[in-house]
Write a structure and sequence with these properties.
By secondary structure, the chain is an all-alpha fold. It is 76% helix and 0% strand. The chain has helices at residues 2-29, 34-39, 45-54, 61-73, 87-122, 127-141, 144-158, 174-200, 203-210, 215-227, 229-243, 247-253, 258-267, 271-299.
Length: 306
């Protein structure tokens, strides 16, 4: 296991490095002048030239990248052109909002996905099964921005039950979490149904039924623990993705998380902030993926990592 984790960490470093190179090159290919963005639209040409020299933007791109990596390794991701604050400070101030939304979204996903997946598997071929899978298809195909706008209009404007976006209180998390959970929850249901069907056909489940154990106990104690592993993997992947910022959902609801911060950085051509949010998201994703793989091995002892 130690060797496997070491290999994954090494691979994670290579992945983050590749993301940094790609993001850096793409950011500087944008037809915008970072010095002008930093100086403001009313700045004179001399001021812009001075800022370009001060920021080192007049140097060759490879040298700028090496300098950026050197500073990033020491925890300095630069200063946001628009916010005029350290990039890392801006990201960490938004991270709690993304973390709360991630946990709430996954809670809704599990609340929807696990009961529907179990019911569809147990009632295979029934109208409940077909209805659940039909709902799953609709949920997966519904775009998040469309679903978020529908929920905002319905439950924030027509029936003003929840706030119209922003983080105005505990109830502000409900609509963004439901927007995330509806799409992910029905996908969880499909995965769990498939895994449950495979598990319910195993010999040990048939043996438990032959012993006269109640159907509920067979499903809950024997089938579900062995069928839940794919869902655990998906939870880990979703958590990594959500912690990095959910750009669409956060932008629709005005939720002040990392996703909205990244969207604003792109709008403002704020290259240090773009680099910071992308790198932060990539680090979160690779680390959570490693943790998920290790947890998966503990949940399923048959899996051995060399």
């Amino acid at each position: 296991m130690t060797t496997y984790i070491a290999r994954r960490l090494l691979l994670a470093v290579l992945v983050v490095w590749g993301v940094s190179v790609l993001t850096f090159v793409l950011a500087y290919m944008v037809p915008a002048d970072p010095a002008r963005v930093y100086a403001g639209s009313n700045a004179t040409a001399q001021t812009v030239a001075h800022i370009r020299q001060q920021l080192g933007l007049n140097r060759p791109l490879p040298i700028q990248y090496v300098d950026y990596v050197n500073r990033a390794l020491h925890g300095n991701f630069g200063i946001s052109y628009k916010l005029q604050t350290p990039v890392l400070t801006a990201i960490m101030s938004r991270f709690p909002y993304s973390a709360v939304l991630a946990l709430a979204g996954i809670f809704v996903e599990l609340l929807i996905g696990i009961p529907i997946g179990i019911l569809a598997a147990v009632k295979r071929g029934s109208w409940l099964d077909h209805s659940a899978m039909g709902m799953a298809m609709l949920g997966v195909s519904a775009p998040q921005f469309w679903l978020g706008l529908i929920l905002l209009y319905s439950f924030g404007y027509v029936w003003p039950i929840f706030p119209l976006g922003l983080a105005q209180g505990p109830t502000s998390i409900v609509l963004p979490a439901v927007t995330i959970g509806l799409g992910g929850g029905v996908w969880y249901a499909r995965i769990l149904r498939s895994s449950m069907l495979d598990t319910l056909s195993q010999d040990y489940v048939r043996t438990a039924r032959a012993k006269g154990i109640r159907k509920v106990a067979v499903v809950a104690r024997h089938a579900l623990p062995n069928a839940i592993s794919p869902v655990v993997t998906m939870v880990g992947l979703d958590m990594a993705y959500f912690l990095g910022g959910i750009v669409v959902v956060e932008s629709v609801f005005g939720w002040p998380g990392i996703g909205q911060l990244a969207y604003q950085a792109i709008q403002n051509d704020d290259i240090p902030l773009i680099m910071g949010t992308v790198l932060f998201a990539s680090v979160i994703i690779v680390l959570v993926n490693i943790v998920t793989d290790v947890l998966y091995a503990f949940l399923n002892p048959r899996i051995v990592y060399d």
